[in-house]
Design a protein that fits this description.
Helix content: 10-25%
Radius of gyration: 30 Å
Largest sheet: 6 strands, mixed
CATH class of the largest domain: Alpha Beta
Oligomer: single chain
Number of helices: 9
CATH topology of the largest domain: Rossmann fold
Bound molecules: guanosine-5'-triphosphate, magnesium ion
Strand order of the largest sheet: 10-11-9-12-13-14
Strand content: 15-25%
Number of domains: 3
Number of strands: 19
Order of helices and strands: EEHEEEEEEEHEEHEHEHEHEEEHHHEE
CATH superfamily of the largest domain: P-loop containing nucleotide triphosphate hydrolases
Length: 427
């Protein structure tokens, strides 16, 4: 299995359709009013974390992703159709960075998590929005805004529950090979393992976890020595580390301290991870004494003596992992700053909320409500009477109050589906 962990992709969200200028010309209506409809919204590009995906292979073959533009507005006040969002499914553990400024746009850590990476443009308003008592026949309409466009780098951080760390040749791969079905290469020379290997470890019928066998670390790894540096970043997401020591080595205590210094020097707070210590190769001469010495020097550490070669002592380690893992959180890597699309209210079917509010910009809000949309179908919102009905609906459904509570201000624009209105506070 090739491990694809970084891909550059060009993204372009759809542009909003232009609003148009048109006038009503109907039989028996002497003075037709402005009737240019609004353009539809452009499609956004939305990334969704999906546990069924394990690689960035799809992205490797689709280096450019584009969403459709919204349609132009139509005559007789009809809206242009909005374009569909493009959904990009990526593995859990994917990070999306803007190549222009290295900013992290999204850190997809949970199954089903959705992040809008490129916002589609908004449709322009048709001329009927611009009629005033002085100018009943406005000849201008808004253009749709452009959809966002950016080059991003998509990176997959290896997601494993447990990461194996230690000097080369201490038996990390041997451990993985005896507790999982993975078959990593094992040999008595250093740096046998060159790329991270993953294995699924089944503790019993109810509990399994992912273990990552990583290349050996050496002194200076945090500054790039050996192979460690490239792969230290992969263990950033590990919730728990198993530190493997070779008790046949001259000074396992010193080995232990060397590795811990490297972890501390790496900027991912790796040294704060819970560590279980597997004292391996207990079959070697002098191992018992060295184990004793280690316990005396570090009485508070959790130590598991083992001989992975003959799969002895590993069971106690697995049971302890089973106990600990459920209590350890996932480590988010970055604080995401998706500043524009700040979600303030999520639709929660269990609570039977009838609407959801999303902040899309400083003074721009999006409203989602099946119920309201159904009611709106029957309203002609450009008739004053129906507009009042709509306002009453907003109030009765609690939407007005909710908008206010979320910080919507006088004059802010709110849209639902293809319809936009201004939030006006009466005094
Ligand atoms: N005596 C003894 N040797 C072991 C034991 N476990 C592993 N070995 C041997 O130690 C050597 C290194 O084992 P690996 O599992 O490849 O070590 P590693 O930590 O993955 O090494 P790198 O991938 O190079 O970092 C091999 O020759 C193994 O057979 C053990 O319990 N006792
Ligand atoms: Mg190895």
């Amino acid at each position: 299995m090739q491990f694809i962990d970084k891909v550059k992709v060009h993204l372009k969200a759809g542009n909003g359709g232009d609003g148009i200028v048109a006038f009503r010309r109907e039989k028996y209506v002497p003075l037709g009013g402005p009737a240019g409809g609004d353009g539809g919204n452009g499609g956004s590009i939305v990334f969704v974390a999906d546990t069924n995906k394990s690689t960035l292979l799809d992205q490797r073959f689709h280096r450019s992703i584009k969403a459709e533009n919204g349609e132009r507005g139509k005559t007789k006040g009809m809206f242009g159709a909005s374009a569909e969002d493009v959904i990009v499914k990526v593995p859990v553990g994917t990070i999306v960075k803007d190549l222009a400024d290295e900013r992290v746009l999204a850190d997809l850590t949970a199954d089903g998590q959705r992040e809008v990476i490129c916002q589609g443009g908004k449709g322009g308003r048709g001329n009927r929005h611009f009629a005033t008592s002085r100018n009943t026949a406005p000849e201008h309409a808004e253009l749709g805004t452009s959809g966002e466009e950016r080059d991003v780098e998509i990176e997959l951080k290896l997601l494993a529950d447990v990461g194996l760390v230690g000097l080369p040749s201490v038996g990390k791969s041997t451990l993985l090979s005896v507790v999982s079905a993975a078959r990593p290469e094992i040999a008595d020379y250093p740096f046998t393992t060159l790329t991270p290997q993953l294995g699924m470890v089944k503790v019993d019928n109810t509990f399994s976890f992912v273990m990552a066998d990583l290349p050996g670390l050496i002194e200076g790894a945090a500054e790039g020595k050996g192979l460690g540096h490239d792969f230290l970043k992969h263990i950033e997401r590990c919730r728990l580390l198993v530190h493997v020591l070779d008790m046949g080595h001259e000074d396992p205590i010193q080995d232990y301290e060397v590795i811990n210094r490297e972890l501390a020097d790496y900027p991912g707070k790796l040294s704060e991870r819970i560590q279980l210590i597997l004292c391996n190769k207990m079959d070697e001469e002098g191992a018992e004494e060295k184990l004793q010495a280690f316990r005396e020097k570090y009485p508070d550490r959790e130590v598991f003596p083992a001989s992975t070669l003959i799969n002895e002592g590993t069971e106690a380690l697995l049971w302890r992992i089973k106990q600990l893992l459920p209590e350890i959180p996932l480590y988010p890597l970055y604080d995401t700053e998706l500043s524009v699309e700040k979600k303030v209210f999520r639709y929660d079917p269990e609570e039977e909320k009838e609407f959801a509010i999303f902040r899309e910009g400083e003074h721009l809000w999006r409203l989602e409500s099946e119920k309201l949309l159904r009611r709106m179908d029957r309203l002609d919102l450009h008739q004053e009477e129906d507009a009042l009905r709509f306002a009453r609906l907003l109030r009765n459904m609690g939407i007005e109050e909710a908008l206010r509570q979320e910080g919507c201000q006088n004059g802010d624009e709110v849209y639902i589906g293809d319809f936009a209105f201004d939030f006006v506070e009466e005094d």
